[in-house]
Amino acid sequence: MSYTEGLHELGNALYAYLQPDGGWGLSNAGLICDGDQSLLVDTLFDRRLTERMLDAMRRATRSAARIDTLVNTHANGDHCYGNQLVGGAGGARIIASERTASEMSELPPSAFAALAEQAPNMGAVGEFFLDCFGQFDFTGLELVLPDHTFSGELTLSVGSREVRLIEVGPAHTRGDTLVHLPGERILFSGDILFHGAHPIAWAGPVSNWIAACDRILEMDLELIVPGHGPLAEPAAVAELKAYFEYLYAQAGALHAKGATPVEAARELALDRWADWGEGERLAVNLATIFRELEGASEPVSALEAFAQMAELA
Predict the structure, then answer these.
(1) H or E element in which residue 114 lies
(2) N or C: at which end does the chain have fewer Cβ atoms within 10 angstroms?
(3) Are 181 and 10 in contact (CB under 8 A)?
């Protein structure tokens, strides 16, 4: 899907920051302004990308000169590693779900930088890791955690705007949060929506992700800013739900005959989703569904997930 990089005004001092092509690490963010108040939805994967985004926002509106509030939709580094530029000394309060805050501390930027340094000695898994993340610079980044957490739902005000934070994880990660502006009929979905690419169920269960899609589809929405990919309408969420339901419908038989997630991914006919990007993620989604079918509560480990994707890729 073709779309352009940078800051896009959604109307009435609402903005989306988009990073084509939306692949590994190229996430989106958002800015909500009213008067002299502002709320940033997510930071980016490294310092350079986050600084570029903040510069674009400051040029567009005086409200972004000092971000009042930052909401991290989940714990993946491409949505929070740039926190130090707005939180801490930057002065913004940082809000996330309790589960997101806990998960963020498990893989700080220093650990990611160490992985990138070790990757050349890790064989096929390391090669795949660098294919995904080699373009980013994780040196000099400090982990800045949320200073305010919540569970379930939290309603905020940005000037006169109502902003609802709705926790729908575990799904993509353990604490996924939607940022909903009911008055404007706009949703910042975080990675609950990958638009035009395979999602990846790091945490699962996938049944929770389907329930999150249902929750979004019950909202009165005009526009969705996805975690990755171009701007979307609710039909994109319906398509994602159909994708997961299709995987569920096929996974039972594939699991019953003893197929590994990689074997199942190779055997599965993707039909209308065949042109989605990052097809290697299918192995992880099937592995997560297999574990759900087995009654396992622990997600697939990150190392196992990358090994599966490297093999499929």
Answers:
(1) helix 109-118
(2) N
(3) no
Sheet with 177-181, side-by-side order of all strands? 153-158, 161-167, 177-181, 186-194, 223-228
Q: What is residue 212's three-state secondary structure? A: helix
Q: Side chain identity at 260, as an amino acid letter?
A: T
Q: Which H helix or E strand runs over 132?
A: helix 123-133
Question: DSSP string of 93-107?
Answer: EEEEEHHHHHHHTTS
pTM beyond cutoff 0.85? yes
Q: Are strands 93-97 and 148-150 parallel, antiparallel or unpaired?
A: parallel
Secondary structure letter of residue 21 according to DSSP: T
Q: In terms of Cα–Cα distance, which of 145, 57, 142, 161 is closest to 95? A: 145
> How confident is the prediction along the chain (313 residues), in pLDDT tens digits per residue?
679 999 999 999 999 999 999 999 999 999 999 999 999 999 999 999 999 999 999 999 999 989 999 999 999 999 999 999 998 777 899 999 999 999 999 999 999 999 999 999 999 999 999 999 999 999 989 999 999 999 999 999 999 999 999 999 999 999 999 999 999 999 999 999 999 999 999 999 999 999 999 999 999 999 999 999 999 999 999 999 999 999 999 999 999 999 999 999 999 999 899 999 999 999 999 999 999 999 998 889 999 999 999 999 9
